[in-house]
Specification:
about 325 residues, alpha/beta, six-stranded parallel sheet, about 30% helix, globular
Length: about 325
């Protein structure tokens, strides 16, 4: 099969597209012929990280969608031919989604109803599961006020959609009118430019009883704003750590009985993953999810696709895979 691989850490220049053996499914696994794969920040971060590779080479990519064409022992043969979206394909595994085929545990291949957009399905995994975990780790959100930072980013945009669907009043922050349009399309009730000098006052006006939960992409820069608008017993959940660590005002958080939670999708419990994929799939089949603009690349353009994500391109980067 054709696959993008890397056999050493480094910039996107270490990626190359070549022929590698097509993997076979093991016990409890399925092999998926992929049609579309998505690129996430975790892909380039893993590629540039320190340490030796766990395998002779690595196929990057966590998310994608396609058709199950083979199953391993213990998997119902009826799943062959099933349309699916996959998640966590390359997490502690060799066969990611930047390839014609991937092999994943059967539970990580989620059935996809006929007629559901394959591009949107391929882009669900990391962003939507992360968003779901951030929103629901501390219980239901119906009737709550949720502040989502980075409403035009993949996780932030997913969080807006899932929070709105969950019955929350959703406030989103963005940095430009174009990004505000994306947050509005996702369903945000109120959209605020976080660069405005009165951003705190705008959030307070939109959440007169205070914000119950904050979905945070930049804790270092936003913590002061978050604490200024958060209710007592409020929760801040951060899923990103790209910047220098923030200074944590322990006493202030203590007297607010504030929960400061850190989330990474790879350590979510299986019950959380199952709940997330179930709710996401239901929303997908109902046509309730709105995609970000798609930025398309061929498999041979994998380096450019990784560079686009690392450069914070606005939209969802997809890889069209060869038939």
């Amino acid at each position: 099969m054709r696959a993008a691989i890397y056999d050493r850490r480094g910039t996107s220049e270490v990626l190359r597209v070549t022929d590698v053996p097509t993997p076979g499914p093991g016990v409890g696994e399925v092999r998926v012929r992929l049609q579309v794969a998505a690129v996430n920040p975790t892909d380039w971060k893993s590629r540039t990280g320190s340490g030796e590779l766990a395998f002779p080479f690595q196929v990057p990519g966590q998310d994608g969608a396609g058709i199950i064409e083979a199953v391993g022992p213990g998997v119902d043969l009826a799943r062959i031919g099933e349309r699916v979206w996959v998640y966590h394909a390359a997490w502690q595994r060799q066969w990611g989604t930047a390839a014609q085929f991937t092999v994943v545990p059967a539970r990580q291949a989620i059935p996809l109803a006929a007629g559901v957009d394959i591009d949107l399905a391929a882009s669900l995994g990391i962003p939507f599961i992360t968003a779901f975990g951030c929103l629901y780790s501390d219980g239901p959100i119906d009737g709550k006020t949720v502040l989502v930072h980075g409403g035009a980013g993949a996780v932030g945009n997913a969080a807006i959609q899932l929070a709105r669907r969950g019955g929350a009043h959703v406030i989103a922050t963005v940095s430009s009118p174009a990004k505000a349009d994306l947050a509005e399309a996702a369903g945000a009730h109120v959209i605020i430019n976080y660069r405005d000098s009165d951003a705190v006052e705008q959030v307070k006006a939109a959440a007169r009883a205070g914000v119950d939960r904050v979905i945070e992409v930049n804790l270092t820069d936003n913590l002061d704003l978050d604490l200024a608008v958060l209710t007592s017993q409020g929760v801040i959940v951060t899923y990103a750590a790209d910047r220098p660590d923030p200074t944590i005002p322990v006493r202030k958080l203590m007297f607010g009985n504030t929960v400061l939670r850190f989330a990474i999708v790879y350590s979510f419990t299986q019950s959380m993953l199952d709940a997330a994929t179930s709710k996401i799939s239901a929303a997908l089949e109902e046509g309730a999810l709105t995609p970000l603009p798609f930025l398309r690349y061929s498999l041979d353009q994998i380096s450019a696709a990784h560079d686009a994500v690392e450069g914070r391109a606005v939209g969802k980067v997809l890889i069209d895979l060869p038939v």
